[in-house]
Write a structure and sequence with these properties.
single chain, elongated, Nucleotidyltransferase, domain 5, alpha/beta, 319 residues, 5-stranded mixed sheet, 5 strands
């Protein structure tokens, strides 16, 4: 039903009731403020299918489209997209077609964006989202190089650091433990010096309290198959909290894609966004960045709104 339709579904049924009671079609058309052909159309649809849902609009799509791209050509377009990751312009050049036509074919097959495709296989990624906050929380650990006192090569430049000085500056790695709620994308993260089971347990205890403070009761946790997550102490903690632990399939990080994407955002917008002069300085900025991410940063996966907008609703009223 279009925005300017004079007859609603109820109005169409009322029109038919008046005609069926014996009122002429022309008189009912005047009463309902529609044209006589419109009244006759709905009366004819009712007579053709009186027991069906005749009052609903029919699709305006034609039964056939002689000018549509042939199926074999569409198959070639999709194959070039999946196997070679080519864009519409390059595919059009190979097949001697118009780029806009190629783009329409890619849209029809759901592969018009490379971000929607699994890079190794070319398959369209099946995306999902749990209906309520706390249904699933993704957890992962990201290893980043520590920043030496005075700053690393991002501050002083690669050419200004001698080889012997580089060896002195190899001070190891930091481990960013991160957790993100599947529905709301609300995130929590900490930086530690290791990825041991005891550290992972302490991190999750604080992360769980963080989600609880925002009214989120965690039901399931999804992790990879790292040793700290396979440990007895970590799983015992989840059991004590009544949380179900799920594992990713081996060698399939896409299963834990939401926290993997958070890790990438962390690197781009916090870890490497500017040249820090020390590891301490960078770690101090994490809480500030997390507040911005949760309360102010627009998230494209949830309609351009910050994650906090999805956890401020009343119980059972999540959107």
């Amino acid at each position: 039903m279009h925005a300017n339709a004079r007859l609603t579904h109820w109005g169409r049924q009322e029109l038919v009731r008046r005609i069926a009671s014996g009122t002429p079609v022309a008189h009912v058309a005047v009463q309902m403020n529609v044209s006589r052909p419109t009244a006759s159309k709905w009366w004819a649809r009712y007579r053709d299918n009186p027991d069906g849902v005749w009052w609903l609009d029919r699709s305006s799509r034609p039964k056939s489209c002689p000018h549509q791209t042939p199926v074999d050509v569409e198959t070639q377009i999709v194959v070039l997209r999946q196997q070679h990751k080519l864009g519409p312009a390059r595919i059009a050049g190979r097949l001697e077609m118009n780029p806009s036509t190629v783009h329409k074919v890619l849209v029809r097959h759901g592969c018009n964006r490379l971000a929607w495709m699994d890079r190794p296989t070319g398959r369209v990624i099946r995306r999902y989202e749990h209906p309520e906050p706390g249904d699933l929380v993704h957890i992962d650990i990201k290893k980043v190089g520590k920043i030496p006192p005075g700053g690393g090569w991002r501050v002083k430049g690669q050419a200004n650091i001698a080889s012997h000085e580089k060896k002195k500056r190899r001070i190891g790695y930091s481990f960013v433990h991160a957790a993100v709620d599947d529905h709301s994308r609300l995130a929590y993260a900490e930086v530690h010096d290791d990825e041991k089971a005891v550290t992972a347990v302490g991190f999750w205890d604080r992360a769980n309290r963080f989600f609880a403070d925002h009214g989120i009761t965690v039901k399931r946790v999804l992790t990879d198959n790292g040793a700290c997550y396979r440990s007895r102490v970590f799983n015992q903690q989840l059991d004590d909290q009544g949380i179900k632990h799920k594992f990713c399939r081996p060698y399939r990080p896409q299963t834990n894609g939401k926290v993997e994407r958070l890790n990438r955002t962390l690197l781009d917008e916090w870890a490497y966004v500017r040249p820090y002069e020390s590891e301490t300085q960078r770690r101090q900025q994490l809480d500030i960045w997390l507040h911005t991410y949760n309360h102010h940063r627009c998230h494209t996966a949830i309609g351009g709104q910050p994650p906090i907008t999805r956890v401020n609703n009343l119980p059972e009223q999540y959107t």
